[in-house]
C-alpha cells in the first residue's frame, strides 16, 4: 500500500527481492504484483509458530518500508490500485488468466493457509470429508474483508464471495476414496474448470508438493495471536478427523447445496451473525457453533496443550469481533476507507489489533 494514497502499488516483485535477502524462500510472489506470500517452516506448537510468524512478518514489513510502501493484511483491497496489477511471473498464473479471463480481473485477494502434516493420502481424503461441514465457521471466524475497491460490500468476507464465482474454488467434494477424489479432480481439469488435476484449489486439499493437508478457507489476518489460535484449532480438527477416519468413519455426506448456503451466510455475517450449521441445518449464532467445535475437538486441543490459545481467541472475538467488524469501526470513526487502511497497516506491522477505542 502507498501510505499517502492508501492505494495498492504493484511492487510485489521488488518487495519479495528485498525480503528474500533475509527470509530466503519463505517469501515469494503471488497472483498479482500487489501481493506477496509469506511462509513459515514446519512448526511443532504455538510458541514456535508465533516466533516464526513474527520473524517473517517483520522482514516483509521492513522490505515494504524500504520501497516507501506499507504491508496491509486484508482479505481484499480496501482501496483499489492506481494502475493495473499485473500478473505474477509464474506459468500457472498466466494459464489461469487465459482460462478464467475476466473472473481474474482485480483478483488481488489474500488468504491464510494452514498446513497439517498428514502423509497418508487415503486417510487425508476421508479427513477432508469430516472437515467440510466446519469450513463455513472458519470463514466466519476469520472474516477480514468487508471492503473492496473503496466500498463496503455489506459482507464480512468479500474474499469468500469472490472465490465462490469459480468452479474450482470453495469446499471440496465428498469422496469415499483417494481414487474417487482423483477422478473428480481429473474430470474437472478435463472440463477446464480446474487448471490441473494434481493441483486443485479447493478449500481443503492434499498439497501436491508437501505431505500435508492444506486448509485454505480463511482470510489473512493482521493479528498474529489470532493466526496462531486458528492454526492450532485447525490442527485439532484435522487430528480429530484423522482418528475418526482411521477408526472406519468416512465422514458425513454434507449436501453441497447446504454447504454452499452455509458458506454464503458465513461470508455475509461473519462472527457477529448467525449461520447455517452444516451438520444439522439449524440456524445458529457463530459463537454457539464455535462452542460446539471446541467441544468436538477438545481431546486433541488438550493433548497438545492448545486449549488456552483457542479459548483466548474466542474471548477476543467476543470482545472486539472479527476483522470485518474492526475494519468497519475504523471507517465509522472517521476517515472512511483510508482510515481502514491505516488501522490495518498499523495492525499488520505490530502483529496485533490496536486496543478498541
TrEMBL record:
Its EC number is 6.3.2.2. The keyword Nucleotide-binding applies. It is an enzyme of class 6 (ligase). It comes from the Bacteria. One of its GO terms (molecular function) is ATP binding. It catalyses: L-cysteine + L-glutamate + ATP = gamma-L-glutamyl-L-cysteine + ADP + phosphate + H(+). GO terms for biological process: modified amino acid biosynthetic process. Keywords: ATP-binding, Ligase, Nucleotide-binding. Belongs to the glutamate--cysteine ligase type 2 family. YbdK subfamily. ATP-dependent carboxylate-amine ligase which exhibits weak glutamate--cysteine ligase activity. This is Putative glutamate--cysteine ligase 2. It comes from Streptomyces agglomeratus.
